[in-house]
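Form P-L/3: holo structure prediction, ligand magnesium ion.
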Amino acid sequence: MSEKRTEIGELGEFGLIDQLNSKIKIRHQETLKGIGDDAAVLDAGDKVKVITTDLLLEGVHFDLSYAPLHHLGFKAVAVNISDVAAMNAFPKQITVSIALSNRFSVEAVEALYAGINAAAEHYNVDVIGGDTTSSRSGLVISVTAIGEVEKGKEVYRSGAKVNDIICVTGDLGAALIGLQVLEREKEVFMADPNMKPQLDKYSYVTGRQLKPDARMDIIHELKELDVVPTAMMDVSDGLASELFHICKESNVGVMIYEDKLPIDKQTFDTAVEFNLDPITCVLNGGEDYELLFTISQDDFHKLEKHPDIHFIGHVTKADEGKFMVTKSETAVQLKAQGWVHF
Ligand SMILES: [Mg+2]
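OUTPUT (holo model):
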């Protein structure tokens, strides 16, 4: 008799995480939050510690034919800091583990670590450990970040309330468009290695893909303005997908407005050049590492004039669903695409 075999693709990434999570038991009362948010949350007296980890695989998450090692080292740290930010916490320490093959020289590893150290300085964190091992195939980088915040100021995905205002920082979709540009230039180069890549006019979008910056600046500003979001997460898989997480965890619905969605002009123009719908890129593009959060209406006046925070809609009751009002004023149902890594 053959054993039952379910393809991972049938469950999807989130389905798989849900299934594995359902078998995990929390044994210590210090563990305030385990799996299921941007970071785990641990009780540490009058503070909480947040811990998050990410695994980056060559050929899956990055391509060394266009990702410089220095940028890659920076990005590996930044994506974890972004999850610390998403909890409204401040990063303190990171550990860095890598697996590499003899394809990499000492100089290459030094370049990677120069990027890691640059990020450690930028985010004011200490590199406190890690592991280095050999890999038979590609480069693997795993970073764990530890942060902290005053107890009660940590922000989960689960706190959004009806009538809260939905906010997003920066602009969206650029990292996805940057990836399209880099992939196209790679193909051109493979076909004719004498071709010089034409990247100058795409520098913003390629920069967003290659060297994202976690929005710790916003976390510091929210603290200064005395605003604690009701729910928050970072935009790593695409706005629509992240909104679905907040809706699920907070048991609410959302109404967002197409004309409020922030998109950079270069992202818009390049999307059109690639025959992609710019709004689809904003809704479903991954790796922007901006912050998506909800605030109480009482806090609106504190953020109203902020140049880099956009108010894209409001929270509704769960049974009102998840909708986007288009520029032609029709309400369309949001779909969460997210990224399928498998
Ligand atoms: Mg996250």
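COMMENT: The radius of gyration is 20 Å.
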